[in-house]
Amino acid sequence: MNQFVENKTQSTYQFWHALSHPNEWRTQQPLRIVKGDGLYVWDDKGHKMLDGFAGLWCVNVGHNRTEVKDAIKKQMDEISYYQLFAGVSHPLAEQLSNKLIAMTAQEDMANVVYGSGGSDAVETAIKIARQYWVLQGQPQRTRIISLKNAYHGVNIGGTSLNGMPVFKMNYGPLLEQCIQIESPWLYRNPWNCEDPDQLAQLVIDELERTIQYHGADSIAAFIAEPIQGAGGIIVPPDAFWPSLRKLCDKYDILLIADEVITGFGRSGSMFGSRGWGVKPDMMTLAKGLSSGYVPLSATIFNHRIAKAFYDNNDHKGLFMHGYTYGGHPLGCAAALAVLDIVEKENLPENAAQMGRYLLTELQKIKEQYALIGEVRGKGLMLALDLVKDQKTREPIDADSDIASRLTEACRDAGAVIRPIGTKLCLAPPLTIDQAGCDVLINALKSAFKQVTA
Ligand SMILES: Cc1ncc(COP(=O)(O)O)c(C=O)c1O
User: Could you give the CA distance from residue 51 to residue 58 in angstroms, rounded to a whole number?
Assistant: First the structure.
C-alpha cells in the first residue's frame, strides 16, 4: 500500500507550487534561487540574474539590505515574537502604525489592522466593510463589486472577488453576492473602445447600472487594484479612479484600493490610488511594506470607518478578527527599515523615471517582433502582451510554450522575468538604475532573437 501511494505521488520534492498543476513539477526542475544581493539573484548553479520581478513584486528595496537585516536582528535579540490581541502590544507595531497613518494623512487614514500577507489584508478589508454597514444600521449591505481580471488573493473572500475564472472554478461555493464588472482595459474590451475617457465612462456606466440593478442599499463596497497586476498589468485610463470615487460617493459605497502591489512606490507614486488623485476609504498593503524580508500586511482605513466603531458601545462594534502573526515584531522591524529607505531614496520617483525608460526601450523591441501586440505599464509594473496577430490582438494560445521559452531564454541571458498567461511581466526592485534596466532589456532582446529565430 505504501509503495503504491509513494509511486503515485512521488516528485523530486514534496511541496506544491502555487498556481500550477502538481503534475507539472513532478519531473521538471524549477529555478532554484539560493542567493540575492541588490538587484541580483543567483541560482544553485551560480548563474547570476537581474531580478526583474523583485521576487514576486515585493523586494522593492532590493536584496540583502544591511539596514533591513540589522533592524530584524536587533528586534530578534530583544524578542522574536509577541502578539497584538486584546490589550497586548509591542513597540514596533505601535511605531509602524504611527508611521503608516502619518504616511497616509492626505488620505485621511485613521487605523491599522495587521496580517501576514496580501490575502489576509483583503480578507480583513471585506470583514471591516461588512461590519461598518452593520454599525450603520444597514446590515443588508453585504455585496462587494470588483473588476474582471482582478486579483485579490487566494482566501475564500479574495477568491470570490477575483475576476479571473481560473482562480474560482474548483473552489465553490464562494462568498455570495460578489459581482465582477468589465475592467477598464484599453487594449482589450468588449466595446472595442480605444478612447481612454470614453472607456472610463463605459465602465463607470456599467458599474452604475449594476448598482441600480442590485440596489445601492445591498452594496457594501467596491474593490479594485489601482493598476491590475496579476490580471496582466492593466493600467486604467486616468479618468477611471476619480470617476469611481465620485460614483461610490453618490451611492454611499465604500471604496477599497487593493494596494498590495502598488503600495509604497511601485506605480511611480507612493500609493497607486494617490497616483490617480483619489482617497479610498480603505487600503490593503503587503509586499512592498516589508519588501518581503519578513511577511507582513496591513489593512488601513479612514476616519469615516473608524468613527463607526468608536461611536458604538455594544457587541456590534466588537472586532472579532485578527491573526496570530499579524504585526509580527520582525515584520514590523523590517517594514520600519524598508519605509525609511523608500522615503530617503525617493523610490516612487525612481520607479516613475525608470519605468518611463523601460517602456521606451520595450517599445523599440516591440517594433521588431510581430509576436508583441502591446507593451504597457506604469512605474515599475510593465508587460509585453504576446499575440498571434497584432491587428486582431488575439493572444497566443494559452497552452503555447512561447512565454515560458522566452522566460527561460531571458534567464539564460541574465534576467528573471515572469510569464503571466500570455504576457511577460516585469517588476524589478524600485532601486533599479539605468544600467540595471539595460541588463533587463538586453536579456529580453537576446531572448526574443533566440526564440523567434
Ligand atoms: C492586488 C493583490 N492583492 C492580494 C494579493 C495576495 O497577496 P498574498 O499572495 O501575499 O496573499 C496579491 C498577490 O499578488 C495581489 O497582487
Answer: 11
Contact 144, 161 (CB under 8 A): yes
Ligand 1, residues at Cβ distance < 6 Å: 117-119, 122, 151-153, 225, 229-230, 258, 260-261, 286
Taken in order of first residue, the domains within the chain and their CATH numbers are 2-61+346-452 (3.90.1150.10), 68-344 (3.40.640.10)
- Relative to beta strand 219-224, strand 143-147 is parallel
Distance 260 CA to ligand 1 centre (A): 6
Counting residues of the chain whose pLDDT is more than 70, the rounded percentage is: 98
d(CA 203, CA 264): 27
pLDDT digits (tens, 9 = 90+) for 413-447: 999 999 999 999 999 999 999 999 999 999 999 99
pLDDT of 24: 87
Average confidence score pLDDT of the chain: 96
Under 8 Å between Cβ of 154 and 167: yes
| Distance between Cα 7 and ligand 1 center (Å) | 35
Bridge partners of residue 221, in order along the sequence: 144, 254
